[in-house]
Amino acid sequence: MKLQAVPKRPAVQATAHPNLQLVKPMLPTPGSASAVPSSPWRRFIDAYLLNGVATAAALMVLLLIAAALLAPWIAPQNPYDLAQVDMMDARLPPGARSPASGITYWAGTDAQGRDLVSAMLYGLRISVAVGFGATVLALAVGVLVGLFAGYAGGRTDAWLMRLVDAQLAFPAVLVALILIAILGQGTGKVIAALVCAQWAYYARTVRGVALVEGRKEYIEAAQVLALPRWRIVLKHLLPNCLPSLVVVAALQVASAISLEATLSFLGVGLPVTEPSLGLLIANGYTYLLSGKYWISVYPGLVLLLAIVCINLVADQLRDVLNPRLRAA
Length: 328
What we know:
Layout: H1 40-48, H2 52-69, H3 71-74, E1 96-97, E2 104-105, H4 116-152, H5 154-168, H6 172-183, H7 187-213, H8 217-224, H9 229-265, H10 277-285, H11 294-321, H12 323-327
Helix pairs in contact: 2-4, 2-11, 4-5, 4-7, 4-9, 5-7, 6-7, 7-9, 8-9, 9-10, 9-11, 10-11
């Protein structure tokens, strides 16, 4: 039987349809933004920088903190050293030059002959130390009380919250005045008074967040796994309370600085040898009607600038850390 060769089929040339185009998959390049996922800190910074006013306020707060920390090196004069203070230079106007020392007082001098620029830098240092120190200590006390009350519940929660309600029933300045009258003057005693006046705000905030988070599934899962209570509270419950705590702490820093200035203005806060911003304002209060405005006005402007900038930072932190406001 003779086999016949099968004829070869003509090669079909592939033609592309005019309306179809081949699309190559877009692969992320090593330098592109999609190649490496952004970290939570990066997303937080990007969201915060969207507000130009809050960004400028944060930079101003950092500048004020740096000026307070570097006060011994950048201040023209040490207001604590009586050997550098000349009573003959008392109440000099801004821009005056001392005939004895040759120092130019760009912001003038106060009634004791101290350079106001130096006094404001040292006063800002005291205000920042008192504000942040009182905030950290009050935050620690309030967090412990609020977490314990929110997680324990029952009678423990009821008794602790009644104590918090009793604390919040009195104005903070009244509580601070009573404690200062009992403890006396001094930086440490002022910080202790501010801690006693402010810890209840943190306890109330943490307790409210802990009650909400304690009903969620991840807390129930941790309890089912028989994890220790301290681990559930510190490693599961506390991290979810931090966004609210950061906002409250930022607001309370401004409140602590303002409260310390109020106590010093009333003459019951820091001693006269430590010129805080509130004490500088009080020293020049009697000279306002005589035309020597700079003794009180300039320290008041520095205090106002610090409080306003801290509040603006706190408002932006609230907007960034609150997912509901961020989604809106």
